């Protein structure tokens, strides 16, 4: 197993380099020099020229691109993600606590999505073609088509205004409930679909029939024999959907004023604050990579058929 | 052997295309989804004829009016008729679908074909590229492009389109690789067909089915993402009557004028739902095993 | 090797009467099993022979009521040790399966859960139905694996199914099936998917295990050689019906029913290299969704044609007992209406007795 982990980590290196290049290139592709744009029209020409020169030296903007790239990576390794031009402070300060918030939101949504998705999927597979199945499948279809931002607004409307269950802007631990529900309920739909399909497929296999022939009860068949096999497929899909969850979190944060990096990213792009945008994208990409790696390892650990040693 | 009772049913086989089309019409999902799509197209085409008001006409006196006979869906925060704006919104929706799908599908399919049917070197290079692109979740890719190019309807569409390329490329590549190994390709080659002939007449038609199914699912997803962009202010900009833009504008009036939120939201939901159902139907007919 | 069958007056362990199993399909109702009568005595090995589509696997599954929609058991009776299987409640059925009747299938790997270790799978019936605790069940599993000939069972028990060969996997299946010492073991084509060299070992294992525990064995197969090796009695099935059954010695030397004769003739023999083409039975099995009023084999039957028996096409022949324990369903061999037929010379099948 350790060998497998090392091998996967090594394979990541070219990808990481690629990410770094792309995020670096982002800055390079910007039509106007950010520094110049920032100071133009604000100071007298002489002061502006001096300020620009200082900043250009500070940000190495006069050097050839590969040297800029070197400084970029070196800065990163020192934990320096740059300075937000708009906010006038180091990016890393701003990102720090927001990152945790986004992880919290994504985590909570994932839990909701998994629980609801698995339960409905398993039930639908067990009671195939009954009203339960049909309802679950239809609701699943709705979920896939529902925009997360609309659903979030609907939830606020229904829960806070019509039913008065929560204040419009909740405080404390309850604050995560609505945003996590918006994301989680919607994400539960594809998971439920996959869980159902996977369970149906596994239930058709010979070893289930063999276990039934040995006198296993239908519940035992479902939960003890079939589920561990079906989970493997579900896990693969979860890995693929993490990207959607992260992305959905970005949008949902803006609706519920959830102070995560998504909200920050949206603002950063609107402000055209490139250091900030670049840093957020870098952080998000690396997080996504790590999550995928964990999912792969989990999958390899769960399915004994996966070749761990080449 | 004359008294061996063997029965042989006699079939008349209609052309495969017509067979498929007929099955499509009979499939309830495809029929429903197809109708939704047809309605959208009709509304988009005849929008000027069915809308009583100019979707851009501001009326400060009649802001946030609930649905009445004069304004079927009510008015928005600057007094514009919601019904008209929703109707014109179908044009934006269809445009987004078409543009994003075209970009993703054409570039992605080409890349996939080259990777699958071309040299191993080409395959290697393209797949490395795709892997790197796929390291970014869909949303991030979009954000990168919008960040560089600045937010607007066209950059939003371009971003979503570009972000969709890896998906198509991977699908086409793996389909081509599978089809390449099939016996009917080997026999075509053995019968003297040239590689280009094989590519276009044997491989490509078999790639079409999974491609169409993928398209039918990826497009609503792309449309959803584009609307999300508009909602975040990173795509279509106001005052365009695009549904995502309408949602973000009326969001502040959620409690006082919920209809201004419900109308664009439901329009989005119904349209995407229709496309997804159509995708289900297409999949049932074209690729029943999955 | 030659075993005489147990006395037929002993009360049968399994008594199937007029069993009918049907499947609903777009073409109509397919009668996979049409009125089967079969008995198995305690400790007896019965070989059930037939080609693909004869309904033998469906029959095997029906005994344990493993037929699921769109299939259904439409009629008849199944008595196990005097108990009515078709009338059993879910709870009684769960008890029956595994504890009283065991079953092994054709694809050993397909029947093993890929994500669980072998030891766990063998121990599971011991734990959940045998009531043993984890430790005892695990030890019992090791012992079982040893008894079916798995070398180094303590280590092998930790392996996963995909790490086993076909023969080993089938041995594990046998261990699982016999874990609770059932009175009857059903083996549905147990060696068909295995290499020829392994087949003999598995068959030997089956025979030994059954003799040791006194378990009856219903061996479903299309291979006459397998039957010759193991069975005490043989029943031949065609198009959902039993057409002949009797002691193995007689059935493999001089079967009465034309279909059974055809099967015997079609079996390839050693030492006949280049002695001519294999003799097949012309035609194909009938459409089971349209049962004919007469004998199902009649359209293909040489004997019917040469004797010009119109009755075969219009009337279903009943069982005629030729002598103790040997009965046939055929108008041509029906001694009550026809004089005994001259029987062409038969040689023994490939794996038969000298």
Describe the overall structure:
The complex is a heterotrimer of chains A (310), B (290) and C (354). Chain A has 310 residues and is an all-alpha fold. In chain A, 78% of the residues lie in helices and 1% in strands. In chain A, strands 1-2 form a two-stranded antiparallel ribbon. Chain A is flat and about 90 Å long. The termini of chain A are close together. Chain B has 290 residues and is mainly α. Chain B has one domain (2-286): MetI-like fold. Helix content of chain B is 72%, strand content 0%. The model of chain B is unreliable at 8-13 (pLDDT under 50). Chain C is an alpha/beta fold and 354 residues long. Chain C has a domain at 12-81 and 183-354: 3-Layer(aba) Sandwich (Rossmann fold). Chain C contains 12 helices and 12 strands. Chain C has helices at residues 56-63, 90-100, 118-128, 134-147, 153-156, 166-178, 196-213, 224-230, 248-253, 258-266, 302-307, 311-314; strands at residues 14-25, 28-40, 45-49, 71-80, 83-84, 101-104, 184-188, 216-221, 233-238, 241-247, 320-323, 326-328. In chain C, the strands form 2 sheets. Chain C has an 8-stranded mixed β-sheet with strand order 6-7-8-3-9-10-12-11, with helices on both faces. In chain C, a hairpin with a 2-residue loop joins strand 9 (233-238) and strand 10. In chain C, helix 3 runs parallel beside helix 6, helix 4 (134-147) crosses helix 6 and helix 6 (166-178) packs parallel to helix 7 (196-213). The longest helix of chain C has 18 residues, at 196-213. The N and C termini of chain C lie close together (11 Å). In chain C, 45% of the residues are buried. At the B-C interface, loops of B face loops of C.
Task: Please give a quick description of this structure.
The complex is a heterotrimer of chains A (310), B (290) and C (354). Chain A has 310 residues and is mostly helical.
């Amino acid at each position: 197993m350790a060998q497998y982990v090392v091998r996967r980590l090594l394979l990541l290196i070219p990808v990481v380099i690629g990410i770094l290049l792309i995020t670096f290139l982002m800055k390079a592709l910007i039509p106007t020099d950010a520094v110049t744009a920032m100071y133009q029209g604000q100071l007298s020409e002489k002061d502006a020229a001096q300020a620009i020169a200082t900043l250009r030296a500070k940000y190495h903007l006069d050097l050839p691109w590969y040297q800029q790239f070197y400084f970029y990576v070196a800065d990163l390794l020192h934990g320096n993600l740059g300075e937000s031009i708009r906010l006038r402070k180091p990016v890393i300060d701003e990102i720090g606590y927001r990152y945790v918030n986004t992880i919290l939101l994504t985590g909570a949504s994932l839990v909701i999505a998994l629980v609801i998705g698995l339960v409905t999927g398993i039930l639908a597979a067990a009671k195939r073609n009954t009203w339960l199945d049909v309802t679950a499948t239809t609701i699943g279809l709705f979920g896939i088509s529902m925009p997360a931002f609309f659903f979030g607004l609907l939830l606020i409307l229904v829960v806070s205004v019509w039913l008065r269950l929560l204040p419009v802007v909740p405080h404390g631990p309850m604050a995560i409930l609505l945003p996590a529900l918006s994301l989680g309920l919607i994400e539960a739909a594809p998971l439920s679909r996959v869980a159902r399909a996977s369970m149906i497929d596994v239930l058709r296999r010979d070893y289930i029939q063999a276990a039934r022939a040995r006198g296993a009860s239908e519940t035992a068949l479902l939960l003890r024999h079939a589920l561990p096999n079906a989970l493997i497929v579900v896990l693969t899909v979860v890995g693929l959907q993490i990207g959607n969850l992260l992305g959905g979190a970005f949008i949902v944060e803006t609706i519920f004023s959830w102070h995560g990096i998504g909200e920050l990213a949206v603002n950063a792009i609107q402000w055209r604050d490139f250091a900030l945008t670049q840093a957020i994208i870098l952080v998000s990409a690396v997080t996504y990579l790590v999550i995928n790696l964990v999912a792969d390892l989990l999958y390899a650990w769960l399915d004994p058929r996966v070749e761990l040693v080449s | 052997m004359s008294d061996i009772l063997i029965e042989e049913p006699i079939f008349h086989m209609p052309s495969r295309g017509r067979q498929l089309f007929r099955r499509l019409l009979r499939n309830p999902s495809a029929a429903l989804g197809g109708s939704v799509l047809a309605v959208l197209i009709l509304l988009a085409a005849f929008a000027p004829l069915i809308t009583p008001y100019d979707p851009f006409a501001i009326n400060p006196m009649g802001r946030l009016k609930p649905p009445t006979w004069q304004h079927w869906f009510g008015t928005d925060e600057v007094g514009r008729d919601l019904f008209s704006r929703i109707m014109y919104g179908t044009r934006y929706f269809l445009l987004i679908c078409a543009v994003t799908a075209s970009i993703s599908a054409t570039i992605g399919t080409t890349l996939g074909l080259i990777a699958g049917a071309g040299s191993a070197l080409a395959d290697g290079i393209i797949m490395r590229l795709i892997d790197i692109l796929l390291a970014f979740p869909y949303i991030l890719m979009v954000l990168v492009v919008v960040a560089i190019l600045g937010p607007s309807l066209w950059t939003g569409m371009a971003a979503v389109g570009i972000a969709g390329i890896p998906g198509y490329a991977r699908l086409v590549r793996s389909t081509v690789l599978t089809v390449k190994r099939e016996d009917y390709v080997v026999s075509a080659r053995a019968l003297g067909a040239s590689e280009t002939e094989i590519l276009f007449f044997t491989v490509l038609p078999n790639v079409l089915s999974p491609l169409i199914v993928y398209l039918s699912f990826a497009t609503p997803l792309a449309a959803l993402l584009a609307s999300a962009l508009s909602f975040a202010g990173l795509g279509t900009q106001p005052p365009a009557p695009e549904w995502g833009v309408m949602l973000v504008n009326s969001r502040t009036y959620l409690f006082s004028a919920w209809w201004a939120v419900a109308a664009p939201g439901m329009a989005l939901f119904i349209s995407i739902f229709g496309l997804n159902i159509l995708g289900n139907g297409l999949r049932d007919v074209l690729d029943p095993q999955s | 090797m030659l075993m005489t069958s147990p006395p037929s007056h002993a009360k049968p362990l399994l008594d199937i009467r007029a069993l009918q199993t049907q499947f609903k399909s777009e073409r109509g109702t397919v009668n996979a099993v049409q009125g089967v009568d079969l008995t198995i005595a305690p400790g007896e090995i019965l070989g059930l022979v037939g080609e693909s589509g004869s309904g033998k696997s469906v029959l095997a599954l029906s005994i344990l009521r493993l037929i699921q929609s769109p299939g259904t058991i439409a009629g008849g009776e199944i008595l196990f040790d005097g108990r009515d299987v078709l009338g059993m409640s879910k709870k009684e059925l769960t008890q029956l399966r595994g504890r009283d009747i065991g079953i092994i299938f054709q694809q050993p790997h397909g029947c093993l859960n890929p994500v669980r270790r072998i030891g766990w799978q063998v121990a599971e019936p011991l734990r959940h139905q045998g009531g043993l605790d984890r430790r005892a069940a695990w030890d019992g599993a090791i012992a079982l694996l040893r008894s079916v000939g798995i070398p180094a069972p303590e280590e092998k028990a930790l392996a996963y199914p995909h790490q086993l060969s076909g023969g080993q996997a089938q041995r594990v299946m046998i261990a699982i099936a016999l874990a609770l010492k059932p009175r009857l073991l059903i083996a549905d084509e147990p060696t068909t998917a295995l290499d020829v060299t392994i087949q003999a070992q598995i068959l030997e294992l089956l025979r030994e295990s059954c003799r040791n525990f006194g378990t009856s064995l219903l061996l479903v197969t299309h291979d006459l050689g397998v039957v010759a090796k193991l069975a005490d009695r043989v029943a031949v099935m065609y198009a959902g019906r039993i057409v002949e059954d009797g002691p193995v010695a007689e059935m493999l030397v001089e079967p009465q029913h034309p279909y059974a004769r055809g099967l015997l003739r079609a079996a390839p023999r050693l030492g006949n290299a280049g002695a001519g083409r294999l003799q097949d039975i012309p035609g194909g099995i009938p459409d089971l969704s349209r049962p004919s009023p007469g004998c199902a084999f009649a359209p293909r039957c040489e004997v019917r044609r040469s004797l010009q028996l119109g009755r075969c096409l219009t009337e279903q022949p009943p069982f005629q007992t030729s002598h103790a324990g040997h009965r046939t369903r055929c108008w041509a061999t029906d001694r009550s209406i026809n004089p005994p037929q001259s029987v062409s010379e038969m040689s023994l099948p490939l794996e038969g007795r000298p």
